[in-house]
Amino acid sequence: MKISRRGLYALKALSHLADAYTQGLVKIHDIAEAEEIPEKFLEQILVALKNARFVTSERGREGGYRLRRPPAEIVVGDVIRLIDGPLAPFGDAVELAHRVRTEPRHPGLFDLFLDVRNAASAIIDHTTLQDLNQRNRRALTARARKIKSSV
Amino acid sequence: MKISRRGLYALKALSHLADAYTQGLVKIHDIAEAEEIPEKFLEQILVALKNARFVTSERGREGGYRLRRPPAEIVVGDVIRLIDGPLAPFGDAVELAHRVRTEPRHPGLFDLFLDVRNAASAIIDHTTLQDLNQRNRRALTARARKIKSSV
DNA sequence: CGTTACTCTACCGAGTCTGTAGACATAGAT
DNA sequence: ATCTATGTCTACAGACTCGGTAGAGTAACG
């Protein structure tokens, strides 16, 4: 499981939209600027997220993007799978399960890979955008306390 | 963490050498044939494994490869890191830890990635070639029983 | 009817991955 | 000595992926 630049940008953008969830539409331009993502590149990513129904958009002046569902209902694992493909170190869960049953000499190897995939998905499939933003806030306030106390 | 063809071949070859550990040298050709790996490609992989001191070799007639240490002392995670790079979904463990501390807006995201990496390495860093071959044997005998009982 | 946004498609350069080719070095058998 | 079977080393080629850019097109709204 490898997170590409695309995947990272997608998660940052969604996280941004989650923060703005109650405030309506956000323009690509604003996300790109705040998150330091090349605007035209982000554009493509948002289209993919739209096709996968994570977000909706409106055109024209005062247009922009917003989450289609509340942050607590968007799972990080689903986003990663969409952008970067399966989580498993080799193939996807279905292919791995198949090879565990059929691989003539090394079924145990694929079984090991399946364990790894399950461990990874156990984490990211139980983390939502809401969790992510809570985590961000906690880490940032902890950091702020640390800086203050060191002054 | 993605396993490349190279990584898969490396693990299969080492697993093969682990099986033959008590029997001395094995030729590239024999490994390639048994494991269905392109011979010249396997050659390169074995050189890498040799430079990383997982295996040793002897040249000439009756030459070949063998594990440098017993199968129980060779850790799958080390092999994967050598061939396919770091296990983390983004960067390596050191980089992740750094970004958790410095990322201005999304430290929690990298913290999440670090959790995933730790879960993956917990598994593959506690699996040796010996474990792997035991797993293979168990899976294969279980499969054999199943076939027999279904006749 | 013009401006501001999103939409769609094409493309490009750099890098990576899988695999092939071939010349070379060395150990052992005859 | 020399032949032969083996490992060693370097180069490279074709396909693919990734990150990013470009530009024309379309919808909403004032």
Question: Could you provide a short overview of the structure?
Answer:
The structure is a homodimer of 151-residue chains. The first copy, chain A, has 151 residues and is mainly alpha-helical.
Features:
homodimer; 151 residues; mainly alpha; two-stranded antiparallel ribbon; 7 helices; DNA-binding
Strand content of chain A: 5-15%
Total strands of chain A: the figure is 2
Give the helix tally of chain A.
7
Assembly state here?
A: homodimer
Written overview of the protein:
The structure is a homodimer of 151-residue chains. Chain A has 151 residues and is mainly alpha-helical. In chain A, 62% of the residues lie in helices and 5% in strands. Chain A is built from seven helices and two strands; from the N terminus they run H-H-H-E-E-H-H-H-H. A two-stranded antiparallel ribbon of chain A has the order 1-2. In chain A, helix 1 packs across helix 3, helix 1 runs antiparallel to helix 4 and helix 5 packs antiparallel against helix 6. Chain A starts with a helix and ends with a helix. At the A-B interface, helix 1, helix 6 and helix 7 of A face helix 1, helix 6 and helix 7 of B. The structure holds a DNA duplex (30 and 30 nucleotides).
Annotate the secondary structure layout:
The structure is a homodimer of 151-residue chains.
Chain A (H helix, E strand, L loop, with lengths): L4 H15 L8 H8 L3 H13 L3 E4 L5 E4 L8 H9 L8 H10 L4 H18 L4 H21 L2
Antiparallel strand pairs in A: 1-2
Chain A binds a DNA duplex (30 and 30 nucleotides) through helix 3.
